[in-house]
Amino acid sequence: MATVQTILNRKAQHEPAVFTVDDTATVRDAVVVMAERRIGGVPVLSGGAVTGIFTERDLLRRVVAQGRSPDETCVAEVMTQPVVIANPTTPLDECAAVMTSRRLRHLPIVVGETLVGMVTIGDVLALRVAEQEVTIAELNRYVFDVR
């Protein structure tokens, strides 16, 4: 059974870093990181530990819709908390179920208090599609190559 580690291994080939912001950063600082890196959310750290997550959804609902200034609002004031996390040994089915039921697009992966990665719903879907393509290819080989 696939685990979160399966996704982390795949991502390490293309996206070795997890981009974060400190809880004292401004909303603008966080948005700049997200825009530069073309990502939809960043874990928020305090003293190295994940204390929340700031996403595009937080920007819209808690900053723009409320008329707050991105330059004057601290990310800790508008981040989603408590943050839902997983660890590398979490089964992928469990991870997908949590993300679906809690309507999450981003899931920080933590070992102890150390952030080791980030899994998105897109990562989960991409892995599922890849697994299904392998299964389809194997079934086609079995059906059409067996004589």
Observed structural traits:
3-stranded mixed β-sheet, two-stranded antiparallel sheet, 6 helices
Question: Your description of this structure?
Answer:
The chain is α+β, with helices and mostly antiparallel strands and 147 residues long. It is built from 6 helices and 5 strands, in the order αβαββαααββα. The protein has a single domain, classed as CBS-domain, CATH 3.10.580. It has helices spanning 4-12, 27-37, 56-64, 75-78, 92-101, 121-145; strands spanning 21-22, 41-46, 49-55, 106-111, 114-120. The chain has a 3-stranded mixed sheet. The radius of gyration is 18 Å and the shape is elongated. The protein starts with a helix and ends with a helix.
How many individual β-strands?
Answer: 5
Question: What's the pLDDT, averaged over the residues?
Answer: 91
Q: What share of the residues lie within helices?
A: 40-55%
Side-by-side strand order of the widest sheet: 1-2-3
Helix/strand-derived category reads alpha+beta
CATH names the topology as CBS-domain
Low-confidence blocks of residues: none
Measured between the Cα atoms of the first and last residue, the distance is 31 Å
Residue share in β-strands: 15-25%
Q: How many independent structural domains?
A: 1
Number of helical elements: 6
- CATH architecture, please? Roll
Give the SSE string.
HEHEEHHHEEH
Task: Provide a short characterization of the protein structure.
This protein has 147 residues and is α+β, with helices and mostly antiparallel strands. It contains six helices and five strands. It starts with a helix and ends with a helix.
